[in-house]
Every structure is written in structure tokens, then in C-alpha cells.
Amino acid sequence: PAPSEADRAIETARGAELRGEHRAAVEAYRRASEMTRDAARQAEIHYRLAILEADPNNPDRRLDESRNELDLYLGTAADHPHQSEARLIAALIDETSQLRADSVTVRTELESMKLELASLKGRLDEKEKELAGIKKVLLQNKAKP
Fold it and tell me: How high is the pLDDT of residue 143?
């Protein structure tokens, strides 16, 4: 039988993927997904999309979209061969997201601490000047007979 439109879209996606054309591959896989109702094929498409979206070489990398595709894959593919890899990738994406959130929190706290430090240094400078003035007065009084 002649290849279906979904078959052709998948072949187009695979070719783009092999050439490193991430955007074209994602678009072709999304088209293929719309054209097929076969659960195994849908699972494979979701898995491939998840990998493409998480690929560090993808200039349009979107970990949140990769995680969504992994959820779709895991919900569709109870006996698909990439189950353990998909769960591992999902866990790593979750950890990455948490580390990024923690990093933002730490950066915010660091900036706040820098401002507080600058304020404390200013107050210390004022107190040192005040102390120098007091020392001067005490030395002048001590020098008087």
C-alpha cells in the first residue's frame, strides 16, 4: 500500500531531525500527530517530540514542552519500549526546573544581601566618622591642663 500522509509527515520529520533541523522536525511530527489515531504511532511521535524539545542543540529548546510531551507519551504508551527513558528524562527535567527556580531565589536573596551590605557599610562609615570626632574631642580635653 502507498504511504499515508501521516507516514510521509513522519518521514519528513525524521529527515529533518537527522539534518538537525529541529523546528522543521517538530512541525512535521505535529502534523503527523494530527493525521494519525494509532496509539503506538502517537506514542512514538510524543516521544520524538519530547526528545527534540529537550535537545540542547535545539535553538528553540523548551523543556516545559518536552515535559508535556513526555506526560502525553507516558499516558499513551503503557508498553512502549522507551518507558524507563521517558520517566528518567521527565525526572531530570523536573529537577532542572527546580534548580532554575532555586537559582532565581538565590540570586534575588544575593541582590538583597548586597543592598543590605552597602547600607551597613554606609552606616559603619558614619559611625567611624562620629567616633573619630569623639576621639578628637577627648584627646583635646586630655591635652588641656
Answer: 80
68 band by pLDDT with thresholds 50, 70 and 90: very high
Angle between helices 39-54 and 83-143 (to 10 degrees): 30
3-state secondary structure of 19: coil
Say if CB 89 and CB 54 are below 8 A apart. yes
- With a CB cutoff of 8 Å and minimum separation 6, the contacts of 86 are 47, 50, 70, 73, 74, 77
Rounded Cα gap, residues 47 and 9, in angstroms? 16
CA distance 94 to 67: 8
Instruction: Measure Cα distances from 51 to 33, 34, 46, 68, 133 in Å.
Output: 15, 19, 9, 11, 69
Q: What is the pTM of this model?
A: 0.74
Can you tell me the mean pLDDT for 11-40? 95
Place of cell 591635652: 143
